[in-house]
Amino acid sequence: MTRVTDHGGGVHSIEVPIPDNPLGHTLVHLVDTGRGPVLIDTGWDDPASWDTLVAGLSALGTAVSDVHGIVITHHHPDHHGLSGRVREASGAWIAMHEADTAIVRRTREAEPGTWLDYLTRKLAAVGAPDDHLAPLRAARAGGRLRTLPGLSAALPDREIVPGELLDLAGRRLRAVWTPGHTPGHVCLHLEERHPANLPGHGRLFSGDHLLPGISPHIGLYEDPDDTAVTDPLGDYLASLERIGRLGVAEVLPAHQHAFTDAGGRVRELLAHHEERLTGLLALLATPLTPWQLAERMEWNRPWEQIPHGSRSIAVSEAESHLRRLVKLGRAEAIPGGPPVTYIAV
Ligand SMILES: [Zn+2]
Ligand SMILES: [Zn+2]
To answer: CB-based contacts of 337: which residues, under 8 Å, 6+ apart?
Structure first.
């Protein structure tokens, strides 16, 4: 049974399943415009997800072939996975922020082993032990390269320009750049009166940036060609404040469910990160590599039970917190290494 929700004012959502993922589904939003429906995100590229999307559109009295445009909040496969297929079936344009489009392009063009080499080198530099690196080296040597989602992701044909209205007939949908979860993440602000007259300024399609019960993963931007030291957590916190200031009446996120009180949720997340940074400073009373810090941080399960791939993601989250602490002047790297070690100052 395909689940669709009427959010009022010509806005609906379809629950498109993500296979084998605790998140369950992506909420694909559909905004009616004078030239046909526009989708915000499309869902995971999987036959069952595609069927659900198609069934959802037909339950809403439209069809994939009617889709006029696709607006993508960020390049992750649970958001952008089906975009190419929808474009093929409809001729719709696909719009994305240029920073995430660059990632799509880079991933499509990468040599099969490049990503694995980059990951292995990087993990070694932050103190990953040999037993973590061994499977990566074995996969490289044996040519058993995991197929990464995104290798065939669709190249967008339009750019989402921060601060500008999208070109949609009869609607006011403004792009708000919210880097952090990815460098080109955007939220979309529907600058129209709330259909149920809830107080506040319109509605916000928040992607993965602002969710009612999940704190999104903030890691590193992971660009093998870019040596600039970015600060994704700093970007994310600034993006949260930007969203908080909009004073929207309702948030329509890409997972879980719609909610009100965006300002309260923003404050909760800011407090959560402040608390986490303070906790990390206590751990950094003794010098630690990013890997050692990740081992000591609090996760949703004990470190021993975290699978291999998720440990690599966890250590990038530890690194994004270290970069923030360094930027704030609350921690510093100790000369020497690799692996690099950090200490609170
Ligand atoms: Zn995401
Ligand atoms: Zn997501």
So the answer is: 125, 289
Please tell me the distance between residue 234's alpha carbon and the centre of ligand 2 in angstroms. Answer: 20
Its pTM surpasses 0.70: yes
Residue 19 pLDDT > 60: yes
Longest dimension (CA), the chain: 64
Distance 345 CA to ligand 2 centre (A): 35
Percent of the chain with pLDDT over 90: 85
Burial zone of 39 (CB within 10 Å; 0-12 exposed, 13-18 middle, 19+ buried): buried
- Ligand closest in space to the Cα of 26: 2
Q: How confident is the model at residue 115 (pLDDT cuts 50, 70, 90)?
A: confident
User: 72, exposed or middle or buried, with CB in 10 Å at 0-12, 13-18, 19+?
Assistant: buried
**What is the whole-number distance in angstroms between the Cα of residue 332 and the centre of ligand 2?**
32
77 CA distance to ligand 1 centroid (A)? 8
Ligand 2 centroid, distance to 152 Cα (angstroms): 18
Sorted by where each starts, the structural domains of the chain and their CATH numbers stand as: 4-103+151-266 (3.60.15.10), 282-344 (no CATH)
